[in-house]
Structure formats: structure tokens, C-alpha cells
């Protein structure tokens, strides 16, 4: 989780991501930020986030982003 939080803070400084459950819906993460975030996550976790993954359910919280990362990692194994 710490690696993900570091990426989130790098992409969107000054936001407390822990405990938030409406990052996408509230506009903290907009479409451009999510594209940058997806690229950083792809590189850091060696996964391939698809366009179909970019939905509010996957980006509304750090926990939901981490769950998506873990799904991709399991698929790759």
C-alpha cells in the first residue's frame, strides 16, 4: 500500500488519500490524473491497466486501486 500512496502523492500532491472513498466522484482524481496514475502504476507494479479498468469503482479509493492492482497481478501469474 505504501508504494501506491507514494505514487498517488507524486501524481496529486497535497491530498490525504487514506480513508477517502470518493476520489474519482469528487474530482480529486480527474481523467488526466488517472491516465498519469495508470502509467505510474503500470511501471511500478509491472501490470497493464486497460481502458476498461478506468471506471469509478477502481479509482474511488486507495483500497480500490490496490484491489485492481492485485487482480492484475493474479491474472499475470
Automatic annotation (TrEMBL):
Highest rank taxon of the organism: Bacteria
Domain Carrier residues, every copy: 1-73
Pfam families for this protein: PP-binding
Protein name: Acyl carrier protein
Organism: Lentihominibacter faecis
High-level lineage: Bacteria, Bacillati, Bacillota, Clostridia, Peptostreptococcales
Amino acid at each position: 500500500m505504501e508504494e501506491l500512496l507514494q505514487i498517488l502523492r507524486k501524481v496529486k500532491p497535497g491530498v490525504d488519500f487514506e480513508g477517502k472513498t470518493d476520489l474519482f466522484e469528487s474530482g480529486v482524481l480527474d481523467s488526466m490524473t488517472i491516465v498519469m496514475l495508470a502509467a505510474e502504476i503500470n511501471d511500478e507494479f509491472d501490470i497493464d491497466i486497460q481502458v476498461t479498468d478506468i471506471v469509478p469503482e477502481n479509482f474511488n479509493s486507495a483500497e480500490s486501486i490496490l484491489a485492481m492492482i492485485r487482480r492484475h497481478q493474479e491474472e499475470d501469474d
